[in-house]
Design goal:
Elements (H helix, E strand, L loop, with lengths): L2 E4 L8 H10 L4 E4 L16 H13 L3 E6 L9 H21 L3 E4 L19 H21 L2 E4 L10 H11 L5 E5 L13 H12 L3 E6 L1 E2 L5 E2 L8 H10 L6 E3 L7 H13 L5
Parallel strand pairs: 1-2, 1-10, 2-3, 3-4, 4-5, 5-6, 6-7, 7-10
Antiparallel strand pairs: 8-9
Helix pairs in contact: 2-3, 3-4, 5-6, 6-7
C-alpha cells in the first residue's frame, strides 16, 4: 500500500522546495493542491498549460506520484450563484488534471453552512440540500467524462453525504461507476461520541463502499473530538488498514491533519500498522 501525504503539509515559499521536502521525508505519493502554485487558490479561474507542465514535471522529476488533486468547494452552498462559480472553477481543474499528472480530483459534498463547507448545518438533511449537492456533482461528472477524469467524494459527518449509506445512495443515483468514486477517511465517518461504535461503522463503510474506493486518508480523532495525526487519537488503525488491505482495489493511504514535525512519527506508526496486517 502506497503511503503518501497532502503536499500542503510542508510550508515552503516555492513548489520545488515543497517537493524536495516530501522526498526528504521518505514519501513517494502526494495529494496536490493548486494553492501551492502561483495560482494561490485551490480552484483558480485558469490553469495555464505551462503551469500545469511545471507541476507535472516537478513531481515526476523527483520520482513522486500525484495520487490526486484537491478540487473542493461547497457543492451544497445555499447561494446558487456561489455554487455556480465553484462549479466553473472545478471544471477548469478537472480539464487540467491530466496535464498536472493525475486523473483523480477530490470533492467535498459540502454543507448548508455558508461560512464553512465542513461545518454541520441543520438543513444538511433536507431534500433541497441533497438536490443542490447532487446537481453540483452531476455537472462535475459531465466534465469528468469529457476529460477521462475520476471524481472522488468523501463521506464526512458534517457534510451532505454524511456517512457510508448516503455515499452509497449518491453513487447509485448518479450511476457513473467510471467517473464517480469514494475517498475514505475514518476520522470523518463518525463524531467523537460514536467512537465506541467505530468498528461497526468501519465494517459497514467498507461493505457499502469498498468496491468504489480510489483513495484513503489517514488522520485521527480524540475522544473529545480533536483532529490529530494518525496514531495520536482513538481510531482503531489496525482494523482500518486491515479493511483497506482486503478491499477490492488497492488505494494509496494519504496522511493529513498533521504538522510537518509530526510526519516522521506518523509515517512510522502507519508503517508499523501495515506490518501487523496478517498474511492473506
Amino acid at each position: 500500500m502506497d503511503l503518501g501525504i497532502f503536499a500542503k503539509t510542508f510550508a515552503r515559499p516555492e513548489l520545488p522546495e515543497i517537493l524536495d521536502a516530501i522526498v526528504a521525508a521518505g514519501l513517494g505519493t502526494i495529494q496536490f493542491n493548486m494553492a501551492l502554485t502561483t495560482a494561490g487558490t485551490s480552484l483558480p479561474d485558469e490553469i495555464p498549460l505551462a503551469l500545469a507542465a511545471q507541476v507535472r514535471d516537478g513531481v515526476a522529476d523527483r520520482g513522486l506520484k500525484m495520487a490526486a488533486v484537491s478540487g473542493t468547494y461547497n457543492m451544497a452552498h445555499p447561494d446558487a450563484t456561489i455554487r455556480a462559480a465553484g462549479s466553473r472553477r472545478l471544471d477548469t481543474l478537472i480539464a487540467a488534471a491530466p496535464s498536472l499528472g493525475t486523473r483523480l480530483v477530490t470533492l467535498c459534498t459540502g454543507s448548508r453552512c455558508a461560512e464553512d463547507m465542513w461545518r454541520w448545518h441543520p438543513e444538511n438533511a433536507s431534500a433541497e440540500a441533497w438536490r443542490d449537492m447532487r446537481s453540483s456533482v452531476e455537472a462535475a461528472i459531465g466534465t469528468a467524462e469529457t476529460h477521462d477524469v475520476t471524481l472522488g467524494f468523501e463521506p464526512e459527518h458534517n457534510n451532505i453525504v454524511s456517512d457510508a449509506a448516503s455515499g452509497r445512495r449518491l453513487l447509485d443515483e448518479l450511476g457513473s461507476p467510471a467517473h464517480l468514486k469514494v475517498v475514505i477517511d475514518p476520522a470523518n465517518l463518525f463524531s467523537s461520541t460514536d467512537l465506541d461504535r467505530q468498528a461497526d461503522a468501519l465494517n459497514v463503510a467498507f461493505e457499502l463502499l469498498g468496491e468504489d474506493l480510489v483513495l484513503a486518508h489517514a488522520k485521527d480523532v480524540t475522544n473529545d473530538g480533536a483532529v490529530v495525526a494518525a496514531g495520536q487519537g482513538a481510531l482503531d488503525y489496525d482494523l482500518y488498514v486491515s479493511l483497506l488491505h482486503v478491499a477490492p482495489r488497492g488505494v494509496p493511504l494519504i496522511m493529513h491533519g498533521l504538522t510537518e514535525a509530526e510526519v516522521p512519527a506518523c509515517l512510522a506508526f502507519l508503517q508499523n500498522a501495515l506490518a501487523r496486517i496478517p498474511p492473506s
